Amino acid sequence: MQLIDGRALAAKIHKEIAQEVRALEITPGLGVILVGENPASHLYVALKEKAAKEVGIKFEKYVFRGTEPEAKIIEKIRELNAREDIHGILVQVPLPPAYSEDAIINTIDPKKDADGFHQVNLRAILAGEPRIFPAVALAIVALIDEACEKAKLLPAAQHKSLALDYRKAILLVNRTEFAAPLEYLLEERGALVHIILRAKTITPDIAAQLKKADVLVVARGHAGIIKGEMIKDGTIVIDVGTNKLPDGRVVGDVDFASSRDKPGFITPVPGGVGPMTVAMLLKNVLELAK
Hints:
Helix content: 40-55%
Shape: globular
Distance between the termini: 39 Å
Oligomer: single chain
Largest sheet: 6 strands, parallel
CATH topology of the largest domain: Rossmann fold
Low-confidence stretches: 155-159
Number of domains: 2
Mean pLDDT: 94
CATH architecture of the largest domain: 3-Layer(aba) Sandwich
CATH superfamily of the largest domain: NAD(P)-binding Rossmann-like Domain
């Protein structure tokens, strides 16, 4: 399979964002809430901070111990809601178990929802009136667009709305909230979308469905759950999974060793969806500032 290089595509998008930021009369501002001591969360926030500074977006980080009252976190979000120089707000998830993720995220002003997971914005997508999309959904679709272009599935006029006309896209995911924005964006491109939710194992029935996919998005959180023999030749595979093995290696939900020699396209883990999600988060902040 050909690799879809998320790092290279993200670098290209960073340059475009930096140019637009320089052309603005204001400096876009992003406020980030980080709660607890989760090493992965601290790493992800550090990567977002580095990327934001590189493109000229003001980055403010507020770190809370995992023992602090939820009300204190909500109060800080309300402060950021009221500030004119902060255009996007992000709560790094997962939060420690003692906190209500919904209550905290839904305190964000929907007009400042940089990550796109506020219930108001998700409901707007379901109603067919999208305001802002989750950064991860935008990242996945941008990677699919890149693969379509390489596979020459885009028509001469580069109309993305036609790139996946009548092609089957299967989303093997854990949450409806993750799948719904992605479904909307793929259907815009003409895809026929089928969602498989919370599959604990790959049954023969599910395997038969996967074999028909022209586009396969896997976000199951289970290392190597998808084997190469389950994937049709020529499929575009977007591996959203990030799983740490006992030996310290980070791998995706797709078994790369059994998939690598098949015809088609695949995102690497790491280096695929992750860098692109950061890029699309910054793009959301830019759009909110504009």
